[in-house]
Enoyl-CoA hydratase (Nannochloropsis salina CCMP1776), 735 residues
Amino acid sequence: MSVAAEVCPDKRVAIIRFSNPPVNALSKKLCTRLKEAVASAQQDASIRAILLMSGEGLPFSGGADIKEFDNPPSRDNAEVGPLSLLIEEIESATVPTVACIHKYAFGGGLEVALACHYRVSMPTALLGLPEVKLGLIPGAGGTQRLPRLVGWEAAVRMVLTGDPLPSTEAHGIGLVDAVAKGGKEAGAALQEVALTVVNDPKTGCHRRTINFPVPSNALNPLETCQTFAKKAGIKVEASDRGGEAFQGALEALAAAALPDPRRGLDLEARVFNRLLRSEQSKARRYVFFSERRVASDHHLGLRGDESLVEIRHVGVVGGGTMGAGIAIAFLDAGARVTLVEVTTEALARAHEVVQGIVASRVRRGLMSAAQAAVWASQRRFQGTLSLGDLSETDLVVEAVFEDMALKKDIFRRLDAQCRPSTILATNTSTLSIDDIAAVTRRPDRVLGMHFFSPAHMMRLVEVVRGQASSTAVVGALAAVIKRMKKVCVAVGNCDGFVGNRMLFSYQKELQLMVEEGADPYRIDKLLFDFGFPVGPFVMSDIAGLDVARRIKQQRQQRKLKESSTGRGNLSSERDSDVADKLSESSGRLGQKNGRGWYRYDPAIGKGRTPLPDPSVQTFLENFRRSKGLTPRNPPHTDKEILERSIFPLLNEGIKIIEEGIAKSGSDVDIVWIYGYGFPAWRGGPMYYAEHHVGLANLLAGLNKYAQKYPCCSHFRPAGLLQDLVRKGQGLVARL
Ligand code: NAD
């Protein structure tokens, strides 16, 4: 960490450069040193302006040091911390202060820039207030200065989405005063543009953002903020659905309209401190660090001296639901894609899907027509009927039907036709990577690359290591996943890997409860209220009841085979076939044919709104009768439904860690947050198990249900859970 002040006597400016690699985090120490530097620069009567600039190669600032958040001020009222003191010093300076923004200014970094009298930036710089993503709000004046500078609408969008703005857009709304010219060394370019700004005759030192008038509006300030949030399509969740930070942000933004800015700043600080101590923010901060930890080289086992193949040309085999989305994801990462299908019709369908998504991005302004033309041009994206056209690729991702014989055949042919360095990956949901790798002569270069549907949108990719997979190959995939702006979690090979294996336990118990008489719609409502984006039966409809049935049949066949060879035991396990019977008996496939656990009407919500279906209730009554089951009386309580849904999920996650399939609780949590919608504000299933349920309570609950349902292996507590409780140890770290 360093702060260096340099005075340019000819230009009569002081340039204060600050460095705290890697992200120039505004630690308490750095803030104190910077404040001293700003104060001392003002002592020199010859100085006409102060430029604040990051040290060479560093971003302006990634914000406050989040690790220091763990020691919040003890008083309920905000303590004035070093960041706020620095901001006061900068804003009250007697000469103009200019923030020179290189790379990015996020969170506290942007709050410092907002307190400067002027802001200039490099054309590639990003500016944002991402605090809501950590369950917080800007706590050093961001919510008070931003509306004064850019108006309510832009301020609400920035604070509530947490998404950064590119430099040019920031200039357009008045957040940045001037953008430097590209093509020059950043420091020199920023200095040049900053001097133009301070030499402008209109420029004075008393341009203090906090004293700007607040734009008036016919509505009251809170209503104004709510209206703009709605207009921007921002879903402001209720506090009990993870929305404490969103509600706090609205409250603080509205306070910017108070006549005395001090009162607004005080209120913002109080809300910030309240959120800092909240369980929701603690969980979100854990998720923030977990996401970075699981994809780090160290966590992936990379030493740093491996030579990693750069993935530039990708082959995708199978252009159905997954393949077309996977092709788009690689195009987004800047790779060239060659897609292989079996028939010209199937190829045309895949092309149509890809072009349709590009067209919709252009329509929604997410891509320019020129970008789209390059993105899906013949040079970048081609279709073929021949696997031979993949011979020169760096990576092939297979996404054909979930059929082991078909996949083995394709891998044999790929192995023969691709150059030896090509990495071969499968998007299988459940099949063994080792069995697929065994048909090739390059098992070290064979892995699972498990995307989630829709593959171009869902952020998670499970990279499944086989026994022989090389770490360098995992590293190469992790790098391309990062280019896609997705999250890579490396997992071990087992039935369903991490995500689906946990899903199987969860779904099994849900169906058993339905057999006993629980209403699927009530279960959905309870789990939606728990925080999932949709209930599990809606989710089954989206994924397709036929898909689930096929996967289940294949898994059963494999298990039967294993039990006949003495490797498994199926005989005593309790299971339900209610979902299979529902789809078999009445041709219900889910959302895709408008009939599943719910009915779907094309005229309502584009055919995606789940509507209760009385014929499902009739089916369930007949189903139970045919099995000689009578609905339980008294019915299940909410508590029992929630425990029997969530506990098997948590137990399976712990078993997965115990077996080394996942390396840590963070891996499991990231998989379930990004792949299955587990509420991030509950920290993911492992964090939830430890910090909300409590490991001892979880063990007691599992034992209670294991005793009641001895034929349900998903209630038998993981050995690791028993060990941890016995030793009084934890499963995940708080941060
Ligand atoms: P899909 O039925 O939509 O598509 C499969 C495609 O593969 C079809 O277009 C078919 O024409 C093509 N195909 C079949 N044989 C081929 C061959 N020999 N050469 C080239 N193409 C061939 O299936 P999907 O849902 O996209 O699933 C594909 C894989 O992804 C499966 O292994 C599945 O388990 C897995 N997966 C699916 C999902 C999902 O939600 N659908 C999610 C994750 C993983």
